[in-house]
DNA sequence: TCTGGACCTTA
DNA sequence: AAGGTCCAG
């Protein structure tokens, strides 16, 4: 039962992918024609994911091979939040190479301890399921997938209060640990995909236009429909949009600042978020994960051809992380800061984890 | 309200 | 040079 919940198996990924393929040819091409992959978004532990995403950075990634599972000598548990809130943690983390993110970890841990007597349970008991108000959500029908889209704004707001948690990290946690299926973590890579596949080629606007044209309420040819016609997503609320609005969002997504660097500004972030919500609906976060991973180089996504060849790849079930989140969480030294065992390598530095022999 | 430099480490 | 967030302006 726990595994079923972790993998969110009550959701038919295949049905979703087929639906998305009908909606969007680009998705179909990525999902079916090119790579035939499926990424199942997992329901991961909020505490571990929160602190992991706060300190992930480009290029940081652990390969399973690096861990030498068979020869492993020690396994660290994820630390208690109270331990991370102790004085001296920031300096300790800095010495381990966490850089300026050391402060984020320390301050966020202190913050959570300041608002809850039970810091390790607060994220799931209060923030995720809001048991104090709604009772135990999980006691509902087993056939019903628990979604938190209704509470998405309030959950995200709470996460954004934490130091080091901006829109992207908040959406990572919402999507992968809070059962918010419409959360879209937007980073520079997603920006590239959004521009190339949906903005520069007008794909987004065309999708909305085709919806206008296929509305059953009208038998007129779509060319005669006013562009202000509102398109509603089925089974979704808050996704209404007009062709004009889609055009506006496209402009924002294509816009660049003076230095011409691909920066995800706040307007761009929100435009891309809304665009994916509108295109793919209530599970758009899941859809975006598939687009994201299918755009990665095969060497990174681990889904590409290897000695077995590309043709017999199964539809993968892969941990639902955004960018360079390790498959295995980075491991932070457990509680005893007093226990100065010396600079044991605890960071997720791939290929440099040494097992004492 | 929004922009862009600083943060820190690794590649 | 890259990476997301913070903060000064």
From TrEMBL:
Residues 344-357 have a biased composition (Basic and acidic residues). SUPFAM superfamilies: DNA-glycosylase, TATA-box binding protein-like. GO terms for molecular function: 8-oxo-7,8-dihydroguanine DNA N-glycosylase activity; class I DNA-(apurinic or apyrimidinic site) endonuclease activity; damaged DNA binding. One of its GO terms (cellular component) is nucleus. Residues 304-357 are annotated as: Disordered. Its EC number is 4.2.99.18. It comes from the Eukaryota. Keywords: DNA damage, DNA repair, Glycosidase, Hydrolase, Lyase, Multifunctional enzyme. Residues 61-233 form the HhH-GPD domain. Pfam families: HhH-GPD, OGG_N. Belongs to the type-1 OGG1 family. It catalyses: 2'-deoxyribonucleotide-(2'-deoxyribose 5'-phosphate)-2'-deoxyribonucleotide-DNA = a 3'-end 2'-deoxyribonucleotide-(2,3-dehydro-2,3-deoxyribose 5'-phosphate)-DNA + a 5'-end 5'-phospho-2'-deoxyribonucleoside-DNA + H(+). One of its GO terms (biological process) is nucleotide-excision repair. It comes from Zancudomyces culisetae (Gut fungus). It is an enzyme of class 4 (lyase). This is DNA-(apurinic or apyrimidinic site) lyase. Residues 325-334 have a biased composition (Low complexity).
């Amino acid at each position: 039962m726990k595994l079923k919940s972790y993998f969110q198996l009550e959701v038919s990924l295949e049905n979703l992918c087929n639906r998305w393929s009908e909606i969007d040819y680009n998705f179909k091409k990525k999902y079916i024609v090119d790579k035939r992959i499926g990424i199942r978004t997992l329901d991961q532990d909020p505490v571990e994911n929160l602190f992991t995403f706060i300190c992930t950075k480009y290029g940081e990634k652990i390969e399973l091979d690096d861990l030498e599972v068979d020869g492993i000598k020690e396994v660290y548990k994820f630390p208690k939040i109270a331990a991370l809130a102790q004085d001296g943690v920031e300096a300790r983390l800095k010495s381990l190479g966490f850089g300026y993110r050391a402060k984020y970890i320390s301050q966020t841990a202190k913050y959570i301890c300041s608002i809850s007597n039970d810091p390790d349970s607060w994220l799931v008991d209060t923030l995720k399921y809001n048991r104090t108000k709604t009772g135990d959500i999980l006691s509902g029908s087993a056939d019903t997938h628990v979604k938190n889209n209704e509470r998405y704004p309030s959950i995200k707001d709470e996460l954004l209060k934490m130091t080091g948690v901006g829109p992207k990290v908040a959406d990572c946690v919402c999507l992968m640990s809070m059962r918010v299926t419409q959360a879209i973590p937007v980073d520079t890579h997603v920006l590239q995909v959004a521009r190339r596949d949906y903005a520069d080629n007008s794909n987004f606007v065309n999708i909305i236009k085709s919806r206008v044209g296929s509305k059953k309420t009208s038998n007129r040819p779509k060319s005669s429909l006013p562009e202000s016609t509102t398109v509603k997503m089925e089974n979704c609320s808050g996704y209404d949009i007009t062709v004009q609005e889609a055009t506006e969002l496209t402009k924002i997504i294509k816009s660049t600042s003076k230095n011409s660097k691909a920066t995800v500004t706040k307007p761009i972030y929100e435009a891309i978020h809304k665009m994916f919500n509108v295109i793919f609906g209530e599970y758009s976060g899941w859809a975006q994960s598939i687009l994201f991973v299918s755009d990665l180089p095969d060497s990174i996504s681990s889904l590409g051809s290897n000695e077995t060849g590309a043709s017999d790849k199964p539809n993968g079930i892969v941990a639902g992380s955004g960018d360079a989140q390790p498959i295995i969480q980075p491991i932070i030294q457990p509680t005893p800061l007093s226990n100065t065992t010396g600079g044991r390598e605890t960071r997720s530095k791939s290929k440099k984890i040494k097992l004492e022999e």
